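Below is how a single chain appears once it has passed through the pipeline. First comes the sequence as given, then the structure the pipeline wrote out for it. We keep one example in the README because the format questions we get most often are answered faster by looking than by reading.
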Amino acid sequence: MKTFNQQLGVGLIEVLVAVLVLSVGILGLVSMQLTAKRTGNESVQRITAVYLAQGLAEKMRMNKGQLPAYVLDWPNETPAAAGTDCSAAACTAEQLAAYDLNQWITELQGAAELRTVAGSDISTGGLLDPSACVTNNAGMVTIAIAWKGFRAMSNPSSTSCGEDTGLYGTDNVHRQVMSFSTYMSIF
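Resulting structure:
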C-alpha cells in the first residue's frame, strides 16, 4: 500500500511541464508577431514604391514635352537643381521637370516626414536606402525603384537599378525592386 509521502513532488513536475509547454507557445506567438511586423513593413515599402512611381508618371504625363528631362539614374546622377518653387510661382516646362524630380527624390527619401528623437530629426517616411532609375525609349517610360529589404533573397534580375550603389549588401541580396512601365505619346 502506497502512502502519501511516496507521492510528494509529482504535482510539482506536472506544473513544471505545463509551464514549459506554455513558454514554448508564448515564444511561438512572439516569433509569429515579429514575422508579421517585418512582412507588414515590406508591404508598406512596396506600396510606397508603387505610389511614388505612379505619381512621377502622372507628373511626366502632364509635362510630356520634357520627357527626356526626367531620365535619371539616382543616386549616381543628381537631377538639375530646382531653381524655382513651381508650387508657388509660374515655371517653364524645363523648370517644372527639374522641380518634379527634386520633389520626387525628396519623397523617395521621406525627407518631408521627420520625427525628432533625442534632439535630432529622423526621417520616418519614404523608402529604406532608395535608388531610382527613369528611362525613356521613344515614349516607353520605365520607372524602377530599388530599396533595402529586410530579408536576404536573390538579386532581382528584372532591372539593374541600384545594383552599383553598394547599398544592398553582398551580391545585392537585400535589394528589392519595383518596376513600372507605361507608354507616353508626345502628341
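The radius of gyration is 26 Å.

See the next section for the split statistics.
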